[in-house]
Write a structure and sequence with these properties.
Blueprint lengths: L1 E5 L5 E5 H6 L2 E4 L12 E8 L2 E9 L1 E3 L2 E3 L3 H17 L3 E6 L9 H18 L5 E5 L3 E3 L10 E5 L3 E4 L11 E4 H6 L5 E3 L7 H19 L4 H24 L2
Parallel strand pairs: 5-8, 8-9, 9-11, 10-12, 11-14
Antiparallel strand pairs: 1-2, 3-4, 4-5, 6-7, 12-13
Helix pairs in contact: 2-3
Length: about 250
């Protein structure tokens, strides 16, 4: 269920309902300041227990064989928000919910990849904390591209389908869950969700976990923060390589 919130340009837009429950306030910023906007990337300014943060929510919508993913405008909007975080020294909370899909290559995909690469570079060099949350249950491995973060969290039902580099009749895609990712140190924490728990209750749990994680890293100096982020990124790459090698 989504709610309508007023945007910076006076229009009405749909905001994922969990954002309204996790954060005490949320003010959406739209557009990439170049060519347009992307509804698959929702971002803006928020507060959590008085702490000002930047929120970036990456979404994917699957309809049969068709998948709608963030596009170049969405990544440029993300870059705008990352630059805002850098200017004002605010932490970033990234939420990712992109369902599993078959990756295809196209000129448009290449343009999107270039925009994503700029976002990754900006995140890697950002001198403020970044927390990323895996919010979906059946996730695309593409989501890994967005985890240039100091802390990566996942809901306990999260699963990923990892495809082999070369498909044959003998090697097939492998499904891994949040617990396996935690053991491989790909993620740092699992967010427990109780069965039949209300969306409000789940969001309150996320609220408390995000607040706790921010307190863990917010006092680190920028040089140490970036150094640890790079180390974590390298460890995640090695973990992913290990998973692929087992397929």
């Amino acid at each position: 269920m989504n709610e309508l919130h007023k945007t910076t340009e006076g229009e009405m837009t749909e905001i994922p309902n969990y954002i309204n429950h996790i954060f005490d306030t949320f003010f959406e910023l739209r557009g990439d300041r170049k060519s347009g906007d992307d509804d698959m990337v929702v971002g803006g300014l928020a507060r959590i227990d008085g702490e000002k943060v930047i929120v970036i929510d990456y979404q994917g919508q699957k309809n049969g064989d068709h998948i709608k993913l963030p596009n170049s405008e969405g990544y440029r909007k993300s870059l705008r928000l990352i630059e805002l975080a850098k200017t004002f020294g605010k932490p970033i909370v990234i939420i990712v919910d992109i369902p599993e899909f078959h990756i295809t290559s196209s000129p448009n995909q290449q343009r999107t990849d270039e925009a994503l690469a700029r976002v990754q570079e900006a995140m890697l060099n950002l001198d403020t904390p970044i927390i990323a949350i895996i919010a979906g249950k059946n996730n695309s491995a593409f989501s890994f591209e967005l985890f240039v973060a100091d802390r990566v969290l996942a809901i306990d039902q999260a699963k990923f389908m990892i495809a082999p580099q070369k498909k044959t009749s003998h090697n097939k895609a492998k499904q891994i869950d949040a617990q396996k990712l935690l053991e491989l140190r790909f993620i740092d924490r699992i967010i427990a969700n109780q069965k039949n728990e209300s969306s409000v209750s789940k969001s309150e749990s996320w609220h408390n976990v995000i607040k706790d994680e921010l307190q863990r890293i917010i006092l680190l100096d920028s040089e140490k923060l970036i150094e640890q982020r790079l180390d974590k990124l390298q460890n995640r790459f090695l973990s992913l390589k290990s998973i692929i090698s087992e397929i």
